[in-house]
């Protein structure tokens, strides 16, 4: 994979495929946090210690065991410019925290971008696996295999009573964060979303926005993940998330059937208005774009719009982010210029093919 491929293609290869229940579940993700024994956590490490950790962990990228799972490239964060790092954040391949790290930060990235391994983020090692649709168990199986490969090469910080030791106490234990990104417009439209999200938090799960902790749920996209990492096994964490996500999927499907049965003309009007505005607007901020793209995506899933594919909507969700806009147009843009370019880009993608 060339250095700039991740910055040139909005959709990672894994995003171009449909998965189970992909009309509702955009993606499934597993993230595993690990640290090396007898090395200070990244926030306390010296520059020399951070470089030593980076060299030790990036050497695993060349191992035969990891290369059996695909082709991997290593990127040192200090070698990337700010725009490239922002694009990686917008594609969920690195965290904002790692993008701002100047000491020994690195990324090991698979060709398909379904595996991204962050080095010297909040923890020494963060293994992330992404799958399209509702495939949380498949993502866990792959992440576990990669975790075993690293554990064979390095000595993890582990306590018999507490489990894997991490920088943040909320990750101690299994060190696992399992999450599904869900598009839930019908539950929002039928005003059921608050009740369901409240119930989710009562069973040990967290609800966040598109970019995780602290981010707003724009475009009717909600990230559902486990909160508990200590006191439950890995399988219990995965099974609990799987069970709750399955129930949410069924509620969203029922809500979509309800709005079609009770207010088809109104919902069709909303969807077509959003489609028209996206097709002809000259200026559009990111929040409005996210909401109207959500409307059109719902229209596609309900069979009300057939001229646009779900993949185009997925691509626009990424392309219309600030970093990618500047990458696409190859120029630094202020806020108003981004809004103008965002509308231009959407018009281009939705224009009838001749």
UniProtKB/TrEMBL annotation:
Keywords: Allosteric enzyme, ATP-binding, Kinase, Nucleotide-binding, Transferase. Residues 24-255 form the Phosphagen kinase C-terminal domain. InterPro entries: Arg_Kinase, ATP-guanido_PTrfase, ATP-guanido_PTrfase_AS, ATP-guanido_PTrfase_cat, Gln_synth/guanido_kin_cat_dom. Appears to be allosterically activated by the binding of pArg-containing polypeptides to the pArg-binding pocket localized in the C-terminal domain of McsB. It is an enzyme of class 2 (transferase). CDD domains: bacterial_phosphagen_kinase. It catalyses: L-arginyl-[protein] + ATP = N(omega)-phospho-L-arginyl-[protein] + ADP + H(+). GO terms for biological process: phosphocreatine biosynthetic process. ATP binds at residues 27-31, 92, 126, 177-181, 208-213. One of its GO terms (molecular function) is protein arginine kinase activity. Catalyzes the specific phosphorylation of arginine residues in proteins. This is Protein-arginine kinase. The gene is mcsB.
